[in-house]
Design goal:
The chain has 286 residues and is an alpha+beta fold. It folds into two domains: 172 residues, no CATH class; 108 residues, no CATH class. The protein contains eleven helices and seven strands. It starts with a helix and ends in a 5-residue tail after the last helix.
Length: 286
């Protein structure tokens, strides 16, 4: 196996096949990011979302997707021009993966694509000594989605971070305050019917535990874009707290826990989850 891949695997605590799959996906995510960086992608886009929080700010849960937003709106943005850079990076490390676009059923400002491949093939390549045939029911085809918001709301602030593996490269990403704005927007507006994505709640706790303030300008613009508030609304920290408290009184926390279970090591961390818990910790928001 490639020595760089061995170095990357050594950073994980692998106890079972679920851990193997999560590590495999995250290493592929990092290879994709490296390829995008080589292709100049981050001169016009920034990385955000749960995976950005995981890779660059030590969020202690795995995350499935790669989310990006253009720095300046461009409805004609062509994501496919970066496919060659990603494919070259993946092949350089011996990965047999396909990159394809997601066909749109209706007009959207989101450009989407998938990295796809055979999970068992790559698990055996990464972890050749494991008896993975025992776990074939877990090994569906590997699919990592990445999306680019081509017309994002204004107000985000950015920073540059550097990674040494698989080889030195730089990534432009939302800073922590802007990432927090995106997470609060997701809690309030993500369309899961009556359900709330538990991963959003888990990340919310992470931001508060790390004393991160929220980028109010970006949050307001995202809420206006989603028609959650109107453009004349005042949005200060107290108003955000009130919106969140209303939401926290509506959530089914048992469903939210089930969503996040596969992505965390210590499920005991969720024992306190309740409307009382989330309403109480929201007082820490500033």
């Amino acid at each position: 196996m490639n020595n760089v891949i061995l170095q990357m695997i050594s950073q994980y605590e692998i106890k079972n096949t679920t851990d193997e799959i999560n590590a495999l996906k995250e290493i592929i995510q990092e290879l994709v990011l490296s390829g995008l960086s080589r292709g100049g992608f981050f001169s016009e886009a920034a990385f955000y979302g749960g995976t950005a929080l995981r890779i660059f700010y030590q969020l202690d849960r795995f995350s499935e997707d790669l989310d990006f937003a253009l720095i300046s709106p461009n409805r004609d943005f062509d994501l496919t021009k970066y496919f060659g850079f990603m494919e070259k990076e993946l092949k350089a490390y011996g990965l047999n993966l396909e990159i394809c676009t997601k066909e749109k059923s209706h007009y959207s400002t989101i450009a989407s694509a998938f990295v796809k491949g055979n999970t068992l093939e790559h698990i055996l390549r990464f972890f050749p000594k494991r008896e993975n045939h025992k776990y074939e029911h877990l090994l569906k085809n590997l699919k990592i989605k990445f999306e680019v918001d081509t017309c994002p709301p204004s107000g985000a602030t950015y920073e540059i971070q550097y990674k040494l593996l698989p080889s030195p490269h730089s990534i432009k990403l939302y800073d922590k305050q802007s990432l927090f704005a995106g997470k609060i927007h997701a809690i309030l507006c993500r369309n899961w019917g009556l359900r709330t994505k538990g991963r959003d709640l888990y990340d919310y706790v992470f931001f508060l535990a790390n004393n991160v303030s929220v980028n109010l300008e970006l949050l307001k613009n995202k809420l206006i874009e989603s028609k959650y508030i109107d453009s004349n609304s005042e949005l200060d920290v107290e108003a955000v707290k009130n919106l969140l408290i209303t939401k926290f009184n509506e959530i089914n926390y048992e469903d939210a826990k089930k969503d996040v279970f596969p992505f965390i090591k210590n499920v005991e961390d969720l024992n306190l989850w309740s409307k009382e818990f989330f309403v109480s910790i929201t007082s820490k928001l500033d």
